Amino acid sequence: MASVIDLSRIPYIRGRLHATNNQFQRYGPKGFMEIKVLHNDNLYVRVDLPGVPDDAIRYRVDAVRQKVVFFSGEETPSAGDKVDDVREYSGTAGLGCDCCEITGVEAKMKDGVLRMILSKGQGKSGRYDIGNSAIDMVEVEDHPFVVKGRKGTFTSARTSDGCYHLSVDLPGVSSDDIFVLPNENEFKFIAENKSVYEHDESCRIFIGAVNKRTCCSHGIPLLDHNIAWDAEFGVLKVRVSPPPLNNNDQ
Length: 250
Known about the structure:
By secondary structure, this protein is mainly β. The chain has two domains: 26-148, Immunoglobulin-like; 154-241, Immunoglobulin-like (Sandwich), CATH 2.60.40.790. The protein contains one helix and 16 strands. A hairpin with a 6-residue loop joins strand 4 (58-61) and strand 5 (68-74). The chain is elongated and about 75 Å long.
């Protein structure tokens, strides 16, 4: 169970998103990828790859030019997932100059986030595209590194047994970091990753809600359903099961 989350840090601007890559994120580093130049001139690269197991990431340096790291991985499907929604990722990160080469890669995959330290050979600092952090739109972007499967942060499906299965991307978050709070109209979730990595500027906080119309059997109150949830590899999985039929309903 997550400890108390301090929500006083979260600004609210009506009509604006904190992060256009995830409509549920309200605080902390944003973007599908983040690149920083460290004090020793190495590069820190963070890439959100929710659903990919910690031991299932693949990466290699371009053998020809040695300026780019290729990375890829596949999401682990779980019960209730649509086959077409299961994701495969593939992308690149690297140097933005012609004067240096990548000499080493330290990589760690944890809770749906790939973090890499790219060491580079001698040479003057290159130019790096860090991106524009200004938020002036409300549209949520598709994941640019998904080559197969769903590109959005949320999906729901109903299986033949009448259960609803919902998936929410919360990269960097584990099951111990999440509150799930159902009421008669919706279930809310609040999450904060307590483990902040060395080169991350802060934690990330996610807040959202799913209306009962998305996950509730017709005519049955939401709180009469059995609601089970877990988080693995940066994805919150919720199963909403209708109550069993009694003899009078048969």
